[in-house]
């Protein structure tokens, strides 16, 4: 009896978090070729180690021993990283970009990882959010928090246009529907001059409660924080909310219903699950997250144009979800770092960077066919020994 | 609109349709044996066209001048090379991921496609630029009003149709085809019956990829120009055509290919801004999927619970 | 033992970090353009040309500084553009930039350069709004806008006796902008537009559009777009038996266009801002030097502009030193600067008021200046009916 209830040690995860923060700091500052190469190799080695039985299981157990404590610690580490980078505009822009992309991928994870609805139009919903922010912020006096909410809402509403065909189809047939939507969305924006056509629209900066995010934060005469601190911090808060939401969803009966629907639709409906309801819920939730992220991203970069929301961009989002490991919300973050930051860090090889990047992803998948950190089974009673 | 113009539109549509159909047949074959989307298919087509071009330049340098010999050998070289590439990719990229979620194959083939595309762009001499493709077929033409029928286009159309019929016969009439169909229907049972599953997969991927190479060479001979990005959209449209027609069904792929070509041609004629034709074609695809959820020619299987 | 290990470590360290003493201070410049994706041939041409300018300057013993070029890839995507622009603009060691081929990217990044005070010279984006939609002192442009180009084009073609046009343009900002200005000047000068066809930039098949155009029977097909599409449309015109003059924009003035078409390119006309390279002594030297470097890709239409922009920036730095504000002021005041693309003078929006538009035509597999061609003397005709 005593053995079963013995809690796992917390220290492995506790140790890991500050390490990750430090690694992030060094990686964001690496510029020379050999630095990037060494850091990238170290990162891959660490991830492979985490995937190995013993190390991975130890981390897993220690995480489960005190999830909320460690979760908040992770938040603190991330916030500390943003603070340390406070004067480094570019690093902060990358941090904010990663967090917003990761937020979109959390949404896609709910859609595909839980409910089994594959969405190849992630960038389109991201774009709907960006365009909504551009139009509403430029032409109305709505408070920006309301604009962010409307961006999410509109993404959800546009997504609901696809719900009917998506409910009737499965697998590759359903995939085609979102692919078709991604292509027609981009072409429509480009041909139609209503929303700026191919040239795109300028987006005003975010301002919440009278605080304009585009102004640098002046502490005193000598210290000035980059204005990206505000965006990175806000993105961190949004991502954290999204992550908590998705985690709660997974652990609740909602998550169980979604799993049932994904694993066997027919059986689920025989047992009285309302398949349509769960699919609609998951699909809409994912699109809302993408829309909100798109609105913040548009306001941060100050510009939206059709060329940023193509099918190729949607495939990048899908790649992040798959590379991380389907259905594991925590895996979204390392995968986003890999897909978003690595090509940037490869700028020194200029025109060869996508060749190398694709080759790296192929290698990772050959060694880890199920993604970097595949989803593990739910354990409602984590202290009940080794599963 | 006079009859000549109408004829021209129809013929244009047929040419476009046969290229789409060849790509779509590949997708449907892959789907049959392994339940996967192979996103690098369009790029295999591109590489095929470039292998054809390189072969042409090689033979040209050796002093071969006969156009039929050149055309035939560049087509064969492209098909053989891509057949081999298809089998290699199946062996080293697709099959290792058999036990992962099927969708992971999508990512790895997407990346493999990027690698192929970037290799052409960076390492084929001046590969970032469009390349002229040799005109090797007789260009005698028949003009009736505003309708121009050229012999080379007729040849391309017939070769494409013959290739698809050939694949169909192979699948339905040969022992190899029987093995492919068996593996597609139930891979476990097929294995128990002594069918070498891995071999069937490799052969199927080789077959589909060779067909893509033929489509690439056809596009090169038809448009007299190829470029490193030509396979991107052709791949997506080929996939769409295969799905709209109904996956795993050769007739469906052909039907889907011609349907897609018809939609695009109609769109280009109807709209004052022809770019709307893609909005039109893909919007209609969504509607068709809502109407026929498993494609126009539905799969004839009941789901076992 | 320990001492030996230490010595070898030290030796390795010396190898890794060579203690070099440059007589000159090093000044960093940034080049930004599309190095991957569909527009990469232009981006690589611009990158190589900028690199060449820097190499030539570094070989010059009289130069006060040693220049180092950082090249970044914007992928022709506005969001990536903002990302790399932020990277360059916030790197205080970078003094000035030679930036952007794609207009959308240039539009998206002007705010970034302004916010962080990095003076840049745009080398290829042609949308008028890049310089005229704001009044930022950091943004300069050495190439002309599509307005100048199309005014000359419309007047010239009407003067040649053509009256009926069909227009094909891609639906990017480049193609749409060209369509807008060309249509405007064409109708003003008495030309007639029979039909306008917007097509997507990745389209392969144009038979439906061209069949429609064949039915309309225009004298000239105007194409607003870049080389890949231009090659496809021109080839497919012949296939369908469309007989008309093919008129392009600066986007098809490239070796790739002529190589991609072979014989069919003969008689294509196009227009480009700036003086013809061959006519200026510096231009010919540029082409020789470029050829000597054995780059994988040709300079393309805008390579000379990137080269001229790099020299403009380096001249300013030579004069006022590597200080962003001073370089900005020096660039702002550019007047009668002699470059390989002609005289550069910035107007009140720091736009090069390029007075000259070069008319070009393909003859015997080469783009040559119209006035020097057999077409101008009447020896050859643009299209045989």
Describe the protein's architecture and organization.
The complex is a heterotrimer of chains A (387), B (305) and C (385). With 387 residues, chain A is mainly alpha-helical. Chain A has one domain (2-367). Chain A is built from 17 helices and six strands. In chain A, the strands form three sheets. A two-stranded antiparallel sheet of chain A has the order 1-6. Chain A has a two-stranded antiparallel sheet with strand order 2-3. In chain A, strands 4-5 form a two-stranded antiparallel ribbon. Chain B has 305 residues and is mainly alpha-helical. Chain B has one domain (6-228). In chain B, the strands form two sheets. Chain B has a two-stranded antiparallel sheet with strand order 1-4. In chain B, strands 2-3 form a two-stranded antiparallel sheet. Chain C has helices at residues 2-16, 40-59, 78-89, 103-116, 129-132, 146-159, 173-188, 207-216, 227-239, 255-261, 281-293, 303-320, 324-332, 374-377; strands at 25-33, 65-73, 94-99, 120-122, 139-141, 164-170, 192-199, 220-224, 245-247, 269-273, 337-339, 342-344, 357-363, 366-369. The termini of chain C are far apart. In chain C, strand 1 (25-33), helix 2 (40-59) and strand 2 (65-73) form a beta-alpha-beta unit. Chain C has two domains: 25-144 and 277-354, Rossmann fold, CATH 3.40.50.2300; 147-273 and 359-377, 3-Layer(aba) Sandwich (Rossmann fold). Chain C has a five-stranded parallel β-sheet, sandwiched between helices. At the A-B interface, helix 9, helix 10, helix 13, helix 15 and helix 17 of A face helix 4, helix 9 and helix 11 of B.
């Amino acid at each position: 009896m005593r053995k079963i209830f013995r809690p796992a040690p917390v220290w492995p995860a506790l140790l890991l978090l500050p390490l990750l923060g430090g690694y992030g700091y060094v990686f964001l500052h690496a510029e020379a070729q050999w630095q990037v190469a060494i850091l990238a190799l170290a990162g891959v080695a660490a991830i492979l180690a985490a995937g190995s039985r013993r190390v991975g299981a130890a981390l897993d157990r220690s995480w489960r021993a005190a999830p909320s404590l460690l979760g908040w610690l992770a938040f603190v580490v991330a916030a500390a990283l943003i603070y340390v980078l406070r004067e480094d505009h570019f690093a902060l822009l990358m941090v904010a970009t990663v967090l917003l992309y990761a937020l979109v991928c959390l949404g896609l994870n709910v859609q595909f990882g839980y409910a089994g609805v594959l969405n190849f139009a992630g960038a389109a919903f991201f774009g709907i959010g960006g365009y909504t922010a551009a139009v509403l912020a430029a032409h109305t006096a709505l408070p920006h928090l309301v604009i962010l909410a409307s961006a999410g809402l509109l993404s959800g509403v546009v997504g609901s246009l696809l719900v009917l065909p998506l409910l009737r189809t499965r697998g590759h047939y359903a995939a085609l529907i979102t692919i078709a939507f991604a292509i027609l969305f981009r072409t429509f924006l480009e041909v139609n001059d209503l929303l700026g056509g191919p040239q795109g629209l300028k987006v005003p900066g975010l301002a919440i409660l009278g605080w304009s995010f585009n102004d640098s934060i002046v502490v005193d005469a000598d210290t000035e924080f980059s204005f990206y601190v505000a965006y990175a911090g806000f993105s961190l808060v949004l991502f954290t909310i999204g992550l908590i939401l998705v985690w709660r969803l997974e652990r609740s009966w909602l998550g169980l219903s979604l799993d049932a629907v994904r694993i066997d639709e027919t059986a689920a409906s025989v047992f009285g699950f309302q398949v349509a309801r769960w699919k609609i819920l998951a699909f809409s939730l994912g699109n809302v997250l993408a829309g909100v992220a798109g609105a913040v991203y548009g306001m941060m970069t100050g510009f939206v144009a059709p060329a940023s929301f193509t099918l190729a961009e949607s495939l990048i989002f899908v790649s992040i979800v798959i590379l991380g490991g389907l259905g594991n919300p925590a895996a979204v973050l390392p995968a986003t770092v890999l897909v978003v930051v690595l090509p940037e860090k490869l700028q020194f090889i200029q025109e060869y960077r996508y060749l190398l990047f694709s080759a790296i992803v192929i290698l990772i998948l050959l060694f880890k066919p199920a993604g970097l950190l595949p989803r593990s089974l739910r354990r409602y009673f984590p202290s009940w020994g080794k599963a | 609109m006079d009859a000549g113009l109408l004829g021209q539109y129809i013929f244009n549509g047929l040419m476009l349709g046969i290229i789409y159909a060849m790509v779509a047949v590949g997708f449907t074959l892959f789907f049959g044996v392994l339940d996967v989307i192979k996103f690098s298919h369009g790029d295999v087509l591109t590489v095929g066209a470039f292998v054809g071009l390189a072969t042409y330049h090689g033979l040209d340098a050796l002093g071969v001048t006969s156009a039929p010999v050149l055309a035939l050998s560049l087509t064969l070289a492209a098909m053989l090379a891509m057949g081999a590439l298809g089998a290699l990719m199946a062996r080293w990229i697709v099959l290792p991921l058999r036990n992962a979620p099927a969708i992971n194959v999508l990512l790895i083939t997407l990346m493999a496609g990027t690698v192929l595309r970037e290799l052409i762009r960076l390492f084929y001499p001046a590969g970032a630029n469009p390349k002229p493709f040799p005109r090797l077929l007789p260009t005698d033409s028949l003009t009736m009003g505003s309708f121009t029928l050229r012999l080379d286009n007729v040849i391309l159309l017939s070769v494409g149709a013959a290739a698809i019929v050939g694949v169909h016969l192979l699948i339905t009439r040969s022992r190899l085809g029987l093995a492919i169909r068996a593996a597609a229907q139930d891979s476990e049972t097929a294995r128990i019956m002594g069918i070498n599953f891995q071999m069937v997969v490799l052969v199927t991927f080789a077959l589909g990829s060779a067909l893509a190479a033929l489509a690439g060479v056809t596009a090169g001979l038809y448009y007299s120009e190829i470029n490193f990005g030509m396979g991107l959209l052709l791949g997506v449209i080929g996939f769409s055509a295969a799905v709209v027609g109904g996956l795993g069904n050769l007739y469906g792929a052909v039907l889907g290919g011609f349907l897609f070509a018809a939609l695009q041609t109609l769109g280009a004629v109807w709209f004052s801004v022809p770019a709307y034709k893609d909005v039109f074609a893909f919007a209609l695809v969504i509607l068709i999927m809502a109407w026929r959820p498993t494609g126009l020619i539905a799969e004839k299987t009941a789901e076992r619970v | 033992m320990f001492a030996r290990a230490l010595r070898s470590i030290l030796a390795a360290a010396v190898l890794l970090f060579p203690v070099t003493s440059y007589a000159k201070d090093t000044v960093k410049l940034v080049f930004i353009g599309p190095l991957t994706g569909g527009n990469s041939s232009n981006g690589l041409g611009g990158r190589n040309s900028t690199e060449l300018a820097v190499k030539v300057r570094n070989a010059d013993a009289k130069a006060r500084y040693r220049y180092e070029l950082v090249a970044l890839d914007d992928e022709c995507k506005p969001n990536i553009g903002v990302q790399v622009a932020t990277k360059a603009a916030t790197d205080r060691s970078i003094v000035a930039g030679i930036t952007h081929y794609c207009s959308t990217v240039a539009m998206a990044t002007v705010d970034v350069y302004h916010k962080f005070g990095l003076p840049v010279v745009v080398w290829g984006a042609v949308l008028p709004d890049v310089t005229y939609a704001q009044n930022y002192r950091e943004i300069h442009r050495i190439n002309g806008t599509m307005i100048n180009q199309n005014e000359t084009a419309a007047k010239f073609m009407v003067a040649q006796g053509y009256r009926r046009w069909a227009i094909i343009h891609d639906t990017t900002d480049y193609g749409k902008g060209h369509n807008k200005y060309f249509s405007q000047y064409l109708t003003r000068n008495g030309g007639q537009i029979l039909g306008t066809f917007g097509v997507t930039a990745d389209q392969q098949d144009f038979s439906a559009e061209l069949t429609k155009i064949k039915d309309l029977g225009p004298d000239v097909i105007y194409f607003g777009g870049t080389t890949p599409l231009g090659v496809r449309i021109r080839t497919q015109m012949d296939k369908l038996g469309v007989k008309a003059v093919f008129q392009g924009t600066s986007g098809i003035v490239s070796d790739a266009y002529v190589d991609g078409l072979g014989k069919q390119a003969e008689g294509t006309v196009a227009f480009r801002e700036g003086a013809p390279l061959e006519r200026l002594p510096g231009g010919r030297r540029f082409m020789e030097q470029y050829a000597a470097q054995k780059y994988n890709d040709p300079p393309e239409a805008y390579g000379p502009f990137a080269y001229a922009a790099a020299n403009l920036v380096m001249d300013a730095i030579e004069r006022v030193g590597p200080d962003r504000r001073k370089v900005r002021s020096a660039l702002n005041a550019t007047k009668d600067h002699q470059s390989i693309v002609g005289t550069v003078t910035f107007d009140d929006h720091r736009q090069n008021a390029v007075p000259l538009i070069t008319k070009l035509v393909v003859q015997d597999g080469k783009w040559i200046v119209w006035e020097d061609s057999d077409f101008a003397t009447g020896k050859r005709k643009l299209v045989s009916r």
